[in-house]
Amino acid sequence: MSWNKKDNILGFTLIEVVIVLFIISVFVSFGMPKFMDMLFESDISQTVRKIAMIVKQERLNSITEKQESVVIFDKKANVVKYSNISNKQDKLKIMKLDNIKFTCSSLEESDKDSDICKINISQNGLATPCRITFFGKGKSYTITIKPFIINMDITESG
Predict the structure, then answer these.
(1) Residues with Cβ < 8 Å from 14, sequence gap 6 or more?
(2) Among 79, 153, 62, 148, which residue's Cα sits nearest to residue 117?
(3) 33-74 pLDDT tens trace
(4) In the chain, what's the furthest Cα-to-Cα distance?
């Protein structure tokens, strides 16, 4: 910090400002990758929670409206489709899963991964048992659906 005797003005020199900006940029550069990972992880976890809520909501709709519902996970199109079965297939609501990879398998059959996972929900709330696992940046999120209980297990890998 310099003191200009002539005008009695207190201020910083250019070199002091440059050094402070350099130190701040070093701290930001160390924190940025962790921050970006946290944002990406938040997107995946938010999407998984939204999908779990969709399945739970469709189950409640089936019980209250006394109509069967369906939730379809399509790996090729990377979407989730859901609606009451009484609606036509072209009226299914669609949620795109941008940049999120997932696998789905039935709990009843052999535990094979398939391109389409269809969860049928009966009028009394019974759901097709299956497991959907979402992947991203060292973590996996699994939604396990059992006939009466819809569970969401979040597991970390790595």
Answers:
(1) none
(2) 79
(3) 777 766 666 777 788 888 888 888 888 888 888 888 888 888
(4) 88
Q: How far apart are CA 134 and CA 139, in angstroms?
A: 8
Q: Tell me: pLDDT of 17 over 90.
A: yes
If pLDDT is split at 50, 70 and 90, which confidence band does 23 have?
very high
**Tokens of residue 70, six digits:** 């369906």
Instruction: Quote the CA–CA distance of 82 and 58 in Å, as a whole number.
Output: 8
Here the tokens at position 92 are 């299914």
Residue type (1 letter), 93: K
Is CATH 3.55.40.10 what the domain over 8-156 is classified as, yes or no? yes
pTM: 0.65
Question: E strand or H helix at 84, and its extent?
Answer: strand 79-84
Cα distances (angstroms) measured from residue 150 to each of 36, 57, 86, 95: 31, 11, 23, 19
Residue 120 CA to its chain's centroid (Å): 22
Domain boundaries along the sequence of the chain: 8-156
Decide: 88 and 70 in contact? Cβ < 8 Å: no
